[in-house]
Design goal:
Layout: H1 2-19, H2 24-37, E1 39-43, H3 48-51, H4 57-60, H5 66-70, H6 83-93, E2 97-103, H7 120-123, H8 131-140, E3 144-150, E4 161-163, E5 166-167, H9 175-196, E6 200-204, H10 211-214, H11 216-226, E7 231-232, E8 260-263, H12 281-293, E9 297-302, H13 312-327, H14 329-332, E10 336-337, E11 348-350, E12 356-361, E13 369-372, E14 378-383, E15 392-395, E16 406-409, E17 421-427
Parallel strand pairs: 1-2, 1-9, 2-3, 3-6, 6-7, 8-9
Antiparallel strand pairs: 4-5, 10-11, 11-12, 12-17, 13-16, 14-17, 15-16
Helix pairs in contact: 1-11, 6-8, 6-13
The chain binds 4-nitrophenyl 6-deoxy-alpha-L-galactopyranoside.
Length: 437
């Protein structure tokens, strides 16, 4: 008894400290790397890549039988899986963090979970834990390692829901069985926390039950006890740290100071070879500029093939993104949301001291760029990634009025980037925080 007490007491204390009401400053400090990171790469890697069908949803919605869906286990080889090459490519894209599926709604774990045999080690020709070497490679590159985990598990025998039209049991009629599921699920969370210690937990599938049923608060407290610096996404029934815009790229600035848009490159999360509806690198880069201009992050998804190779269209997007993010890194990382669109008709970011304004030129300008309504005096202007100084002049500024007038900037055509050009305005005074950023 004494021994147990001596174990439990420190744990309890740690837990109390970790979960004591966090001050806004403490939260901002915990979220800092996420704020600065701007770009993450999402990875949906799973058995659904074998047939190239919808991840988990394809059997849930009846496009394929459960049996045939699970036959994909036999084709999941990971034969050419090269986690170091993945990490290199992710770093090259300019992403500062990654989120990989540890387990999607189909319940197939990418690591050797002891809680169930349904994992790629026991059930597929891959025969090995795929997460450990990836986490190692990602951390060796100095990137943050996040992990996707589906709270719901349509394969688990104690989970109430199975197919769209077929449930195993009604949750409220058998809370004992539901508690068995929670024990299973929490077992996996404990494994993941202790073995991988994610920098970020990206939960999904919370919509099937409410916060009390999932015991969402306890999940949050537990994970923060394991790692007081970890970050939790929004899909934990209200117990997350940041927002996820639901309907694509936000038009106006989201209320939360921390948000992340997750986005597919085509229309699929996992590998689906028939889906050729890829966004162009230009579209991806412009969406990315929109996100950071509004103070958010982009979590851009790739769906590797079953053998572990990344489709060439996706590699091409990551490489072009990498060229662009490398050239414009000072306008991206560690910045905050920019000025309102009424001032400048495009995305913009500000350095943390708010004395450097980065204007993103996301189409070919006819004539000079114009900034209206900004009271801060410009000291100098140049093209980011190139350094060429730019001419600018202020018009319509009456000496007797506080109206800042119109700031015109020359941008010679031969200085334009193939995708999105960025110019920097160095300001005499910091831009005021008028807009909640
Ligand atoms: C979920 C999954 O069901 C899907 O398979 C994929 O893994 C994706 C990343 O996450 O789908 C969602 C769930 C919620 C939203 C969008 C996609 N949402 O709230 O906008």
């Amino acid at each position: 008894m004494k021994k147990i007490k001596s174990l439990i007491l420190p744990l309890l204390l740690v837990s109390l400290v970790a979960n004591a009401q966090e001050t806004p400053e403490q939260k901002a400090a915990r979220m800092q790397w996420f704020s600065d990171a701007k770009l993450g790469i999402f990875i949906h890697y799973g058995i659904y890549a074998v047939n190239g069908i919808g991840e988990s949803w394809s059997f849930h919605n009846g496009q394929i039988s459960y049996e045939n869906y699970m036959k994909q286990l036999n084709g999941f080889t990971a034969k050419k899986y090269d986690p170091v090459a993945w990490a290199d490519l992710i770093a090259e894209s300019g992403a500062k963090y990654t989120v990989i599926t540890s387990k999607h709604h189909d319940g197939v774990a990418l690591y050797d979970t002891k809680m169930s045999d349904l994992n790629v080690v026991k059930k597929t020709p891959a025969k090995r834990d795929l997460l450990t070497p990836f986490y190692k490679a990602i951390r060796e590159k100095g990137l943050k390692a996040g992990l996707y985990f589906s709270l719901l598990d349509w394969s688990q025998p104690d989970y109430p829901n199975f197919l769209k039209n077929k449930i195993r049991y009604e949750y409220k009629n058998d809370t004992l069985r539901w508690n068995k599921y929670l024990t299973f699920m929490n077992g996996q969370l404990d494994e993941i926390a202790t073995r991988f210690n994610p920098d970020l937990w990206w939960f999904d599938g919370d919509w099937e039950f409410g916060p009390e049923q999932w015991k969402a608060k306890q999940i949050r407290e537990k994970l923060l006890t394991y790692n007081p610096n970890t970050i939790i996404n929004s899909r934990l029934q209200g117990y997350g740290d940041y927002d996820t815009p639901e309907n694509g790229v936000p038009i106006y600035r989201p209320k939360s100071p921390w948000w992340e848009l997750c986005m597919t490159m085509n229309d699929s999360w996992g590998y689906q070879p028939t889906d050729k509806n890829y966004k162009t690198p230009n579209q991806v880069i412009r969406i990315f500029a929109d996100c950071i201009g509004l103070g958010g992050n982009l979590l851009l998804d790739i769906g590797p093939k079953a053998d572990g190779t990344i489709p060439e269209e996706q590699v091409a997007i990551l490489k072009e993104l990498g060229r662009w993010t490398t050239k414009h890194s000072e306008a991206i990382y560690g910045t905050v949301a920019g000025i309102p669109r009424e001032w400048y008709a495009g995305p913009s970011t500000l350095s943390k001291d708010r004395k450097k304004l980065y204007l993103f030129i996301d189409s070919k300008p006819i004539g000079q760029l114009v900034v209206k309504g900004m009271p801060n005096k410009v000291v100098s202007a140049w093209v980011v990634g190139k350094g060429n100084p730019l001419n600018f002049n202020v018009m319509m500024k009456p000496w007797w009025s506080s109206n800042p007038g119109l700031l015109y900037i020359d941008v010679p055509e031969d200085l334009l980037d193939e995708q999105v050009t960025v110019i920097c305005l160095s300001l005499e005074t910091p831009v005021q925080e008028l807009f909640g950023n």
